[in-house]
Amino acid sequence: MGERRKGNAPRGDSKKSTNGANANVGQWGRAWEVDYFSLASVLFLLAFAPLIVYYFVMSCDQYQCALTVPVLDLYSGKTQLSDIWNKTPLLTWTAVKIYIAWVSFQVFLYMLLPDICHKLLPGYQGGVQDGAMTPAGIINKYEVNGLQSWLITHILWFANAYHFNWFSPTIIIDNWIPLLWCANILGYSVSTFAMVKAYLFPTNSNDRKFTGNFFYDYMMGIEFNPRIGKWFDFKLFFNGRPGIVAWTLINLSYAAKQKELYGEVTNSMIIVNVLQAIYVVDFFWNESWYLKTIDICHDHFGWYLGWGDCVWLPYLYTLQGLYLVYNPVHLSTPAAISTLLLGFIGYYIFRMTNHQKDLFRRTNGNCKIWGKKPKYIECSYTSVDGKKHHSKLMVSGFWGLARHLNYTGDLMGSLAYCLACGFDHLLPYFYIIYMTILLVHRCIRDEHRCSSKYGKDWKLYTNTVPYRLLPGLF
Q: Basic and acidic residues compositional bias: what residue ranges (predicted)?
């Protein structure tokens, strides 16, 4: 849920037909049929994911972020579920107005302000961009303006904090649980609307998948690229806005609350803000690249993305900052420097690994990786219409060390966020545990798809690059 920044295998397809009308209809998108394990997983997530988010936020609000104490208190009879619920802030009109204003502002920035950053910033690709071809043979156009939206939003935030004083910089955390109910309402509403739309007025009837199982279709989505009008694309908006734009604002609100409560902002809070801001800005700087990732090219839009991006992402990806509000941590200078270095090195590996893949793909292998012409394995595959196509799988640079070293860099950065919080509680380490499960699962999904596509050529590739994430280990 709330997935972002994903890469694929280091391939440089000579013709991008794997996502097009000629693709093997048994491979594109999510499953056609639902096995019992998949159905059980879907039912578990639908039932418990909202409770998990509530439990984490509640444990901070009522138990100083101690995850086990509520369970122990319930088990011992020291407290009752009704006691916990009665202490939980309910939905308020203040939160509703804040949330409506927030989402409306992001829709305005997304829909009505064409991007100008690509005209001002060298190397940035914004404005109108083509996405990958869908299984129905459609190439959607996108208005890539996420970086512009992020900049405008944050300029206004700082202008308010230091000059206008329209609202308190702590406004987000002060209304954190009431805003959770608003986010859930939007998440469920947009997911339900997407399902109804898929049946009654799909954007393209050929870009749909039905399993016949209501729960699976609701969660994983039916439509590939649901849209309203020409430009409002559900995937691009909800994957990037409002959740990821809010990520850095949420962290800033945490820092402001820490300043209000303790008279200072700790170095650990600064580290979390800096490292996660780099992550967010990188996402928006490379938003046009994101159009070619698994989220856009293979995932359908359902509850998994709709609710996940409205609730799961902003509430669980920001746990480190929330934890530091209730449990301020002062890192020693060596620990602070080491944590920052881990985060920077992880980001460097992540970014350079993806850069090498993109360079290799753009030039069809006519480039230099680490000062040398890249080595690759020639692959071929046959599409459903019987045509044979060719690809290259790079085995040089970072891609010669492991098949998904970009994920390894991502995990190093994720671990740095957690380490900034010290070792007193488990809660801030949920993120690295979750990201490890998520990215390992991503590896397996992508490699299964590649194995089906390339056959014996993929086996040759995995023999040449035997490790997935950790060279010499895994």
A: 1-16
pLDDT above 70: percentage of residues in the chain: 93
- Check if the beta carbon of residue 336 is closer than 8 Å to that of residue 267: yes
Torsion of CA 248, 249, 251, 255, to 10 degrees: 130
Contact between 412 and 406 under an 8 Å Cβ cutoff? The reply is: no
Q: What pLDDT is recorded for position 17?
A: 36
CA-to-CA distance for 30 and 412, rounded, in angstroms?
29
Does residue 388 contact residue 457 with C-beta atoms inside 8 Å?
Answer: no
Model confidence at 239: pLDDT above 80: yes
Residue given tokens 């037909």 in the structure block: 17
Cβ(346)–Cβ(409) below 8 Å: yes
> What mean pLDDT do residues 375-393 have?
80
Taking Cα atoms as reference points, which of 194, 116, 105 lies closest to residue 148?
A: 116
**Pair 164, 302: CB distance under 8 Å:** no
> Residue 93 in 3-state DSSP?
helix
Segment 339-348 shows an average pLDDT of 97
Write the DSSP string, 220-280.
Answer: H-SBSS-EETTTEEHHHHHHHTTHHHHHHHHHHHHHHHHHHHHSS--HHHHHHHHHHHHHH
What is the token pair recorded at 375? 């080595």
Residue from 293, 280, 284 nearest 118 by CA: 284
- Cis omega before residue 89 (within 30°)? no
Adjacent-strand bridge partners of 141: 130
Q: Could you tell me which residues come within 8 angstroms of residue 264 by beta carbon, excluding any fewer than 6 positions away?
A: 258
Structure tokens at 462: 């995995």
- pTM of this prediction? 0.90
Give residue-wise pLDDT tens across range 183-233: 999 999 999 999 999 999 999 888 898 988 999 999 999 998 899 988 899
The structure tokens 């809660």 sit at 427
For residue 328, which of 413, 260, 411 has the smallest C-alpha distance? 260
Tell me phi and psi for residue 426, to 5 degrees: -80, -30
